[in-house]
Amino acid sequence: MRRLLLSFAFLIGSAAFAGQPHHLRIDPTQVTVSGVSAGGQMAHQLHIAYPDLFSGVGIIAGGPFGCAGGSLATAMTRCMGSVKGALPLAQFVSEINMAVGDGKLGETATLADDHVWVFHGTLDNVVAGELSDTIVALYGEFMPVKNIRYVNEIGAAHHFPTRDQGSECTVSEAPFIGDCDYDAAGELLNHLYGELEAPLTEPTAELTKTLLAGAAEAGLAETAYLFVPTACRQTEKLCKAHFVLHGCAQSTVQVDSVFIEQSGYLRWAEANDIVLAFPQVAPAANNPFACWDWWGYTGEDYRWRTGAQMEVLTNWLRRLTAP
What pLDDT shows up at residue 13? Predict the structure, then answer.
């Protein structure tokens, strides 16, 4: 069994990060990650780099692993709204396999029983559809096609699509949440975990804050957010865990808790015993829109297991799952 069953404890805190400890038990075989735009790219990187930690991924408006090649210029010309020429799928796959051999990525064989959910809106002109096509093809090299769900027929612009929150579905504007009569959070969680219980109308648990060690050095905010369903506060309850990565201009510094609260994850998590983790990117001079690093602003190893943001997030996960 590749992910041994562990338990973890952390503080459910007030704004001052204080409170009574609640001991939670998480099934490490049920830890997944998702994200939108730059967050989708980061979720993809985490899954490819750490298949031993994450058993599935949801990617909305992202791009294939290694697309930027460590270059902002390449990121802008090949990995955004327009794709110059055919994307080199064989090269991406070859680079992944070579990096596995060098110990920079986890074993791709571990991906075989994972689940992948990919979304691209037909009206998205910020990230080209060919990029999502290539993500799907890339994963097809490492897992059965039946494990991959590709949604590319919804008339959505560049944003996180929801059932009834945000701007018009055809518009891409802050806080980049679209009212598309489509529950992306629910759809991806159901694909990653299997058929779930219907979501609650309103979650009864509340968001809590926690400090994220090493965050500042990696361009991240020191404050991260956790959502612990009511049932998961019982010491005997075995729960799932899911990391949610916001897109550019969606951090809590920029939109407060709007993305966290309106994206739809909380209602599903409360009803299905899923602990949610919401790390945040900090806006900076070299990253004013608070995007996750998918082109190398934190260093040339940004997409490997040793990448600054990759290490902060996976170290946090390991601390959360420490006995």
Answer: 31
